[in-house]
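Supplementary Methods. Inverse-folding protocol.

Structures were first reduced to a discrete structure-token string of length 198. This string, shown here, constituted the complete conditioning input.
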């Protein structure tokens, strides 16, 4: 039988706040993904996640775009400037404020075949996701015909950060949102700069 004092204490504590509820949902989704067997996809997502380290994937993609002529060169430049701007916003401003610890792959039972090297930085928001969506949104803004494939690649990179156990879904969602905002803004600024020089 529950002691009256204990019941009163629980009642006074009340339900968890919105932040606690969102954090609980975030961790529950992370654990559900970790618990879902996907052996045919694990290596592919791990390789994709690592390819995006230090924005190597986006530099390579920019090189391919630049080889497609003037439109591709403009899109490549817009994408790389967007990545630089977003990286600065996330790494210099948002991550220090967030201060969220990375997931613990062992505790949450992330399969070993999925795991990649755990970054030293804090978890919130995801820099990889921010860079991915910054590049994709800036390129789409500059050269719409290639938007579909680039945005699909950005989405896969962002998801790979959860799949490999280095980010919670909320980290990825916020990082992607930041990139989607900063990307077009930097592209617009670069377009105005080009016009001022012409």
């Amino acid at each position: 039988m529950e002691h009256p004092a204990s019941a009163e204490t629980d009642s006074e504590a009340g339900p968890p706040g919105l932040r606690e509820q969102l954090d609980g949902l975030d961790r529950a989704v992370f654990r559900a993904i970790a618990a879902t067997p996907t052996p045919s996809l694990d290596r592919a997502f791990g390789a994709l996640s690592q390819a995006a380290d230090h924005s190597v994937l986006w530099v390579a993609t920019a090189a391919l775009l630049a080889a497609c002529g003037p439109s591709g060169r403009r899109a490549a430049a817009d994408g790389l400037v967007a990545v630089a701007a977003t990286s600065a916003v996330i790494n210099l401003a948002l991550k220090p404020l967030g201060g969220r610890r990375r997931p613990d792959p062992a505790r949450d039972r992330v399969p070993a075949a999925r795991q990649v090297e755990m970054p030293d930085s804090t978890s919130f928001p995801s820099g990889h996701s921010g860079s991915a969506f910054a590049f994709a949104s800036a390129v789409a803004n500059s050269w719409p015909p290639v938007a579909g494939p680039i945005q699909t690649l950005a989405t896969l990179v962002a998801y790979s950060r959860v799949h490999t156990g280095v980010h919670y879904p909320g980290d990825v969602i916020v990082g992607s949102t930041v990139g989607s905002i900063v990307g077009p803004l930097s592209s617009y600024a670069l377009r105005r700069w080009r016009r001022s020089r012409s």
